[in-house]
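Progress note, project year one: complex with zinc ion.
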Amino acid sequence: MIVEFRDDWQNFPCKEWQGSRTVFGYGRAGARGKGHAHREAWKEAHPDFMLSPKEFVMHACDNPPCYRIEHLGLGTAADNMADKEAKGRGNRKLRLSKDQIAQIYELADSGKSRNAIRKATGHGYSTVTRYLNERE
Ligand SMILES: [Zn+2]
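Model obtained:
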């Protein structure tokens, strides 16, 4: 997982696209309405970066119509698949061992942020989030 989200993205509320949306719920924007609002927002914030078709602009918040720049991160196609799987939308669910899960809970109990846990354990942000949500 290469995608990096800001540590403090949860401090910012989602900004949902109010225009038309694609069947997947993404905001429809850009040239001839073929772009995605979140992708356009990311490009606008990084004007010197050439976004390739293999690179995905991903949501920390998992909210497709959101185009809040603080919630967006860049990932490769492989990351996008891994992220989908971790969020349970793929065919295969990622499973962690009991020890790995215990480690996540321990870090959470010591007051570490989800992003800090992700960095400490090497698991994806969404994996960490999923296990913490499952515990609650
Ligand atoms: Zn959002």
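The helical segments are 37-45, 77-86, 98-109, 114-121, 125-135.
The two ends are 25 Å apart (CA to CA).
No further modelling is planned for this target in the current period.
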